[in-house]
Amino acid sequence: MRGVGTVHDAPEIATALGRTQICGRRVLYVDDDPLLRNAIACLLGRAGAICRPAGTHEDAVALLDRDPHVDLAILDFHMPDGTVADLVPRLRSVRPDLPLIGTSGLDRQREFAECGVTRFIPKPWDLEDLLRVSNS
Per DSSP, which regions of the chain are E strands? Predict the structure, then answer.
């Protein structure tokens, strides 16, 4: 039988802590893959966050313009309507101070950094990965 607060409880404690840290935060998630957008929206929603998924750069800019309370944006590198190099200046024109995290299945950390996105999380990722990167 597992005891309360033992090493066996570490994953549950980490998940509960993650929910507390992300709960109520508004996250703009920009990705052209609808299945991934839905999965991330569910992941963030279960943790108490409000996910604003966008499938294009136009959608992302419009969502950010309509919701001034977005706390964080997670950006896929390559979209059908351009790359993160095209999107970042548009987002910055709406919210210069918005924290940005890049994500990709490829190691594009350098390319993101060249566009001013200094935080990177490789796909696939989970809530703990997101919290680690967003708090760095």
Answer: 26-30, 50-54, 72-76, 78-79, 82-83, 100-104, 119-122
Residues 110-124: tens digit of each pLDDT: 999 999 999 999 999
Domain count, the chain: 1
Q: What is the pLDDT of residues 82-113, one digit of tens each?
A: 999 999 999 999 999 999 999 999 999 999 99
Say if 2 falls within a structural domain.
no
Classify residue 19: in a domain, yes or no: yes
Q: Which helix (H) or strand (E) holds 107?
A: none
Please list the residues that pair with 67 across neighbouring strands.
none
Give the whole-angstrom CA distance, residue 115 versus residue 4. 46
